[in-house]
Amino acid sequence: MGAIQLQCKGYCGATTDHTLIWLKLDAGLKLEGKQSVVPVDCQANISMTDQEYDRQDGLVIKLIRGRLTIEYGNTIDDEVRTLSQLVYDRKFPERGFVIKTKEKKPRQER
Question: What is the pTM of this model?
């Protein structure tokens, strides 16, 4: 996982964005495939929806019974506009990150 920290002030000045990277390598460690996902990005209003992972002392990512499942979304005014679920299964590493994304339309005020 890579972390980017910017030394600036303002809305996102004190936050850390996170990127998950999956690499598919052959027996000789030659790159055959890659994926990257950004589950936390302040500027794009992307954050984890499960508070168990997003803690004050940093993002905690863990496998449970060999699987990683996280949900993250693009939020505007505290309303989720897109919600993505990422699944990585250690039993099937060749699948990489399996990501399902659904869009949620904003509620209309009556």
Answer: 0.70
Cα–Cα distance for residue pair 96/33, rounded to 1 Å: 9
Residue spans of the domains in the chain: they are: 2-103
DSSP bridge pairs for 48: 72
Could you list the pLDDT tens digit for every one of the 110 residues in the chain?
Answer: 555 554 555 567 667 788 999 999 999 999 999 999 998 888 888 888 776 655 555 667 788 899 999 888 887 666 668 889 999 999 999 999 999 998 876 666 55
Alpha carbons within 13 A on the beta-carbon side of 105? 3
Question: How many CA atoms, within 13 angstroms, populate the side-chain half-sphere of residue 2?
Answer: 8
SS3 of residue 109 by DSSP: coil
Contact 89, 70 (CB under 8 A): no
